[in-house]
Amino acid sequence: MRIMGIDYGRSRIGISLSDPTGTVAQPLDVFSHGPKTLNRIAKLATTNRVGMIVVGLPLNMDGGEGEMAREARGFAQRIYHATGLPVEMYDERLTTWEAHGIMKEAGLTRKKRSRHVDRLAAVLILQRYLDKKRHASGN
Fold first, then answer.
1. Given 3-state DSSP classes, what are the helix, strand and coil percentages for the chain, each rounded to the nearest 5?
2. What pLDDT does residue 66 have?
3. DSSP state of 12
4. What CA–CA distance (Å, rounded) separates 84 from 9?
5. Which of 16, 73, 84, 105 is 20 to 30 A (C-alpha) from 55?
6. With 70 as the cut, is the pLDDT of residue 131 above it?
């Protein structure tokens, strides 16, 4: 089953997708957040035969939930209603910071990092989710 990963942001949405075995996450898309966001996500889910969706939960460093976490939960609810697919939240602390670090280390300019950070953050969220699920099942 393919799983879609989403890095929610007020201005941009990063999308990743697992392989059919649910083992490896890969980048799929990034787009501006707007009135057609849910339709776009639903279309990507249908086109790619997605069976579930993981939305990053931006927890505070102490594990508490702030305004962005509440927004992400609301967004996840709207995705569920738009797609009918199961939606899980997954802790995304430091993924954007890590994504910037990976791209900086790879030599990308600040402008290029800015264009790709949400897509890479979505990959990191989904890959961590997949790894945790695999570890929990003993594989």
1. 45, 25, 30
2. 83
3. E
4. 22
5. 105
6. yes
φ/ψ of residue 132, rounded to 5: -65, -45
- The answer to whether the Cα torsion of 43, 113, 131, 90 is positive or negative is negative
Residues across the chain: 139
Residue corresponding to tokens 């890969």: 26
Cα distance between residue 79 and residue 38, in whole Å: 6
CA distance linking residue 8 with residue 119, whole number of Å: 10
Does 3.30.420.140 match the CATH number of domain 2-136? yes
Query: Quick one: 63 exposed, middle or buried, by C-beta within 10 A (0-12, 13-18, 19+)?
Result: exposed
* pLDDT band at residue 53 using 50, 70 and 90 as cut-offs: very high
DSSP 80-113: HHHH---EEEEE-TTHHHHHHHHHHHTT--HHHH
Instruction: Give Cβ neighbours of residue 122 (< 8 Å, ≥ 6 apart).
Output: 5, 6, 7, 14, 15, 16, 25, 27, 28, 30, 56
| pLDDT surpasses 80 at 25 | yes
